[in-house]
Each structure stands twice: as C-alpha cells, then as structure tokens.
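Summarise this fold before class:
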Amino acid sequence: MKRSLLCLLLALGALAACNDKPPGQLEPIPRPADYKEPPKPAAPKPPPPADPNKVTLRWKLAEGAPVALKLEGTPSAATVYVLQRPKTGERMLRLAPEGAKAPTDQGTFSERGFMLDGLNNVDRNLATLVMELPKDAVRQGDTWSLGLELVDTARLGRDFAEKKAERHNTVKLSALVSEGDERIATIEYDMLERVSGILPPAAAADEHTEKAPIKAPKGKGKGKEEPKEAPKSAAERPVTAEVTFTGRGEFLVKAGRWRSWEGTLSSKTEGYTPPSPDQAATLVPPGTLKLKLTALDSAPAQLLQPEPKK
C-alpha cells in the first residue's frame, strides 16, 4: 500500500514538472475586446504607362562604331567631331579642323550630350549647342535650357562695373511627327546673353598704355621699355558684350542622331579690345557664323580614340 502511494506521488510530481513553463518564457498579453487588426499595406502601384506624346532624346552610340560629324561655318571653315563609346569609361568627343592630322581638343559627355569634362570655353560652348539634349522626356511645346556660359565679364577686368544684364536661354520642341517607324523631333533655339557696364578711367587708361623704349647712353645697346603716359582724355567708357544664337534641328528619336541641324551664331564686344583673341569676354568665335551640321560616312582615323591594349 505504501509502495503504491509513493508511486502515485512520484507520477503526479512528474506530470506537474511537465506542465511547468520554462524559465523566462513570456505569456501573451491579452488584447482589448475592441481591438481591431491594422489594415494590411497596399500593394505597390504599377508605374504609370509611358506618355505616348512624350519622347526621351538620347545619343545612341554603339561600342566600336564611332560617329563623325562635320560642323561647317566655324572659323577654320569646318570642324570635325568624332563621337565614340568605349568599352569602359565615359563617351568621348574628339575634334579638330577638317584635314588636321591630330585632334586639337577632346572631352567626355553623357548619353544626352551634356559635356562632362574637357574642352576649352569656345569648343565647349559650340559642342553644347550641337550635342546637348533635354534631361527629361519632353512633349511638343516643352522648353528647356542648355548648359552654356557665353559671356565672361571677369575678362573685362576687375574694374568693370556691370550695369545691365539680359539673358535668355530657350530650346523648344516645336514639333513631333512620325515617319514610318521613326519619330522626328524638331528643336528650335533662341539664345541671347548681353552684358553692359562701365570701365572707369583708370582701367581705360591701362588698356591704352603703350611701352616706349628708354633711350640708352651711347654705345650701351638698346634701352629698356617703359610705359608711356595714358592719354589725358581717357574717361570712363561704356562696354557691351553680346552673344546670340538662333537655330533649328531635326532629331531622329529612334536612331539617336541629328537628321539636320543649322543656326546663326553672332558675337560682338563694343568699347573694349582684349589683349588677345583668347582673352575675349565672349566665349564663342567672334563675328557672325552660319553653322551647319552634316554626318560623315566614316570617322577620320587620326581622330579616333585608340583602344586600350589587352
């Protein structure tokens, strides 16, 4: 009897031990009676369908297939541009006057023709006019601007006092039509940058100061030069620097290149003569240029970027 009772107690103890919760286990907190489940997050919406009335304009270059363009009407009569897409790195632009044996300048550009690096001021502005396309998709009537700096007043000297500036930089998609499986985007350009101001008498005098040789004693060779006195009539002088461009082009959306492009670029500075053409306040070639872009059948070998050696 005692043995049976002991076995019963041991069995009850073992059962109680099985029902005990392990140390540290948390019990769920009972929810209030009025608790409501939060709504499940909505599924992400699909992107809106592409607007059939909009187009994204991009240069479409294939690896190993350079594109050559000739810009007629530049100071060298014609400038050749070679566009290349290397296997690695950014797209390359190399340029030179037609017939040159080596490139005179080069730079890199993005898929939309934005100049990323390289090129001097004048070459960069001309390349921007020819190559830069809008960043976003555009529809007929949309306008945008180009990354241009056409006038640099710092080149007029630190004494130049700007009085008035007028700038507008407008490119417009004036028409978008279909021809077979191609779409033609007609783009119009209207650019003006005009800055006017005053050069004070001191700056005007410095510009006209000439150097005259100092007479050396007899038998002692040539004398050194010393500045002549500025004309007493020197007075403050009005100065105006102006650049304008109007043009029109037809861009092949699917092919990613120009079918035609032409325009008139005009530059002048009144009241100031730079020490050299490279220091002119207008950052485009001087005078009036009738520009026209045409495609070449092949790229001149001397303008191609050499492929890296394996």
